[in-house]
Design brief:
With 238 residues, the chain is an alpha/beta fold. It is 36% helix and 18% strand. It is globular, with a radius of gyration of 20 Å.
């Protein structure tokens, strides 16, 4: 197939949008003999970044799926992230894509810590950039395609309930969500994972006498202590 034809097909699959920032695109960029629809800003930023470049195909395929899903369900793609032209703050290009795959051998705690490390590293390397998380999950489903309880908690309680304030947008198998408030950039350095109320209270009792423990948004079951996030697991293993 000719390069021009490959580029035409790629742009059609992407709804003529950049697969990262979703701005309008005129060109595609070749990566390992495959086409990646990118705007010029994202191409300059990410094609030269080896940590991101190796994930571009996965990010591209994810966006292709979202476009196809929107067309099948509604007949148009206007619902995808709203009308970009009406979001001037989105056009500053200070955006970083974070991609993570939860493999079949990983559980809630391991996955949560990996995602948190990516979040903290992103803020350290590219301070205050708008962060967009792309999450894929390998396996972790029953015979009907339903996620197990740990992966539901990972997406609903940990990522949305705890980490959403630190992201601009989040895209997961069960839900796409955009932060309606300003992204927080004071990402605590460490995260502590406790498995039940007993472990949580033991941790709190040790911390309180030593300097004042700040508890924020208790109803969401996450707790901030100076430079640390404490997350209490909700799903109880049998």
């Amino acid at each position: 197939m000719e390069i021009e034809e490959m580029e035409k097909i790629a742009k059609q699959k992407a709804n003529h949008k950049c697969v990262i920032c979703h701005a309008e695109v005129q060109n595609c960029y070749e990566l390992d003999k495959e086409m990646i629809p990118l705007c010029c800003f994202c191409a300059r930023k990410y094609l030269g970044n080896p940590d991101i470049a190796k994930q571009l195909k996965q990010i591209r395929d994810y966006w292709y799926e979202q476009v196809q899903k929107a067309i099948q369900e509604t007949g148009n793609t206007d619902i995808l992230l709203g009308n970009i032209e009406e979001e001037p703050n989105r056009l500053d290009r200070n955006t970083v894509a974070i991609y993570h795959v939860v493999y079949e051998t990983e559980g809630l705690e391991e996955s949560a810590k990996s995602i948190y490390e990516l979040l903290y590293s992103s803020q350290e390397k590219q301070p205050d950039y708008k962060r967009i998380l792309y999450l894929d999950i390998d396996g972790h489903t029953d015979e009907y395609g339903r996620f197990d309880e740990e992966m539901i908690e990972l997406q609903q309680d940990f990522i949305i309930g705890t980490l959403l304030p630190y992201f601009y947008e989040i895209h997961m198998p069960i839900l796409d969500v955009k932060n309606t408030e300003l992204q927080k950039n004071d990402v605590p350095k460490d995260m502590v994972f406790v498995k039940n109320d007993k472990d949580l209270m033991e941790y709190l009792s040790k911390q309180m006498p030593s300097g004042g423990y700040l508890i924020e948004k208790l109803e969401k079951k996450y707790y901030h202590e100076n430079r640390k996030i404490v997350y209490k697991k909700n799903y109880n293993e049998s």
